[in-house]
Amino acid sequence: MKIDKTQDIYYANKKSNCNFGAIPLARYETQKDTFVKVYQLEKRDLPFVSRFIHNIKQYFADKKIEDYSRREVMEESFGAAEKILSSPKKIKGKARIFLAVQDSNPCGILIGNVLKESKGHKLAYSSRKNHSRKETELDWLATWNPFPDKKIKGTGKILAGEYFNTLKKDGFRDVYVRSEVPELSFAHDFYKKIGFEALKDNRESIIKSSSNKYLIGDFDNPKEDIIPMIAEPENINKVKHDISEKYNRQKLINSSVSLEFLH
């Protein structure tokens, strides 16, 4: 399969002065001749993120997406991305923001490595108590289907695979995630499929108290309905390989995209 070698990714909407200049990373074949491309958002993509947040309600109406619970997760995720991209470099730290796009339509976002502040004003990338120095956290993951008349699969796994590819470079070993309980969501089963295992400790003793806040994000609540989970290197490496093989990952050197909702 040939690698996409079109022009540098750039979209400019003259009316809104909204630029999309994210870093192209990879493309995955989710079905025959159907590709999901993944980009890493940078500070220059702040206008795009802000515009997306402003247009989410209309976006759902235009795409006839009826799962409004996803809209709330999307708004939270893009709101976090907006805070990260608009923050000073020191606070931004090693935060990573990945956007999935299919046929000029955004279909998923993943945010990891968000800096957090502990009671002792120490900065860390994991909100778990007594975490190792090389532990980070997958902070937000939201996927949605912009095509009501057809299925779209694998977006969450693809985003996770790209995130896992950055861990070693960023100096991390383990990844922590706070999964919603199974009664509320399929998130727990999904995270198990991408290499996470539930921690056996009582979750209220693991989650930091509400006085431990994200520098960018929400407060932790030890009583919230979550299951703490960890992905370790052996599982992470296996998942990276399996996702890459299953969806025929190809490096996306350059790409051109015109995001439909910006027109």
Question: What can be said about this structure in brief?
Answer:
The chain is 30% helix and 26% strand. It has 263 residues and is an alpha+beta fold.
The poorly predicted ranges are: 1-17, 203-222
Structural class: alpha+beta
Figure out the total of helices: 7
> How many discrete structural domains?
1
Helix content: 25-40%
Shape: globular
CATH class call: Alpha Beta
Rg (C-alpha, Å):
18 Å
Report mean pLDDT, rounded to a whole number: 79
- Tell me the total number of β-strands: 14
Strand order, sheet with most strands? 11-13-10-9-6-5-4-3-14
Sheet having the most strands: 9 strands, mixed
Identify the CATH architecture: 3-Layer(aba) Sandwich
Our estimate of the beta-strand percent is 25-35%
